[in-house]
Request: fold
Amino acid sequence: MSAQPISELLAQILKGQIRIPSFQRGFVWDSDRVTYLMDSIYKGFPFGSLLLWQTKEVLKTENDLGPFKLPEAPDDYPVFYVLDGQQRLTFIFGVFQSELKPSRNEGWLDIYFDLEANDSPQENQFAAVTDAELKQQPDRYFPLRSLFNTAQYGKLVRAISDDATAERIDKMRERFQTVLIPAQITKTEDKATVAIIFERVNRQGVELNTFQLLTAWTWSEDFQLQKEFSQLADEIAGFGFEEIGADTNLLLRCCSAVLTGDASPEALMTMSGEEVRNNFDRITNGIKYARLCQNAL
Reply:
């Protein structure tokens, strides 16, 4: 387990080192969750860790970091793909960074330190503030986006006439500058190991799509398999396999079972898109005959 300050995480993302694989779930902005995460970090409460996969191989397909388009991956560094903690990392980056603009409008609001909130363990001291609310009470809120921008922060603090308020803001900033974000890093280039990790993360409630995993890693040149899987689903539906046809991950396991005799994650990762496509008749017949054998019994 390692840990990094927020400033280092921001720098790594802006350099293109930390990336989001395409098999991760989509990002959902939730203002309440963001403010409570900021409050937990500020107060030293547990807030979860990141699970990162370090690799020298850039995946063929990737996602944005929430609404932010990531820079290109560097050629001379390993990259770190987020396996768990995508939401937390996106919240942290979106709140504190000041260089990238969101590429999509997802109800994104800036997060502020609420100077009128009680300094107590129970009360949330951070708020997602609209422009209208900020205009009505400009002295109530201090933007977290300025905390890691020295010039902007200094300008805002110098404009505060009350010394006690300025000192309170300085202490808040110091907390965010010194806190360490825990991260567990897995270093491997072995596909079978990665498949096992994803399956175990999946058992913990994270929805990962094995087909997207294979596509991201090595199947992008064979992505028309998505269409072939759809056609296969339609064909086997007439044999009483509607539920199987609707489950791409289960279809993949059926493919692996027919071709290798093994439906484990390790076996899945040994298959190539070309191998599956070239043996589609064999796979389809295997599934159909399994249904016929079941009916005979």
